[in-house]
Amino acid sequence: MATTRLADERIRCKLWPEEYGSNHRHIHATYSVRRWEGVAGPKLLLKEANWVKIRQEVLTLKRAEPAPEGLDEMAVWFHEVVDEAVRKHCPLSKPSPHAKRWWNKDLTAMRKEYISLRDKVRKLQGQGRDNWVVSQEAGRA
């Protein structure tokens, strides 16, 4: 009652030695399952791609090499042409194990603005002057 691949990876399969008062017996199965350890490489930064050059490259490749007749062949050919153009004109990321995928340039700008306003408030408080307007701005940033 298993797939062929799972049956091939079976090390042991036997009935569980203890009975629990039920009319069903537990089965103890052990498998040798290999985990895939994928290596995360650099990814394409599609937000920073030069889409004008990509369009021009696709048009150039399309004119240079005629598309095949069949629909499936044409789809594969077009995919390869677009993939080649994107890889040529799209920068790669420099992945970090500590990178936050949700962080973007807008958040960086907002963080810098907040830190600037916070520092102004601290400077004024250190001078003994508490500027309510700057404090309110820092609270909104």
> How many discrete domains?
3
Provide the succession of SSEs: HEEHHHH
Global geometry: flat
Helix content: 40-55%
Mean pLDDT: 81
| N-to-C span | 60 Å
Q: Helical stretch count?
A: 5
Low-confidence stretches: none
- Sequence of strands across the biggest β-sheet: 1-2
Find the count of extended strands (DSSP E, 2+ residues): 2
Main beta sheet, described?
Answer: 2 strands, antiparallel
Strand content: 5-15%
Alpha-beta classification: mainly alpha
- Rounded to an integer, what's the Rg over CA atoms? 30 Å
Could you explain how this protein is built, in words?
The protein has helices at residues 4-8, 51-64, 71-89, 105-126, 132-140; strands at residues 10-15, 27-31. It has three domains: 1-35, no CATH class; 46-89, no CATH class; 105-140. The protein contains five helices and two strands. The mean pLDDT is 81. It starts with a helix and ends with a helix. The chain is mostly helical and 141 residues long. Strands 1-2 form a two-stranded antiparallel sheet.
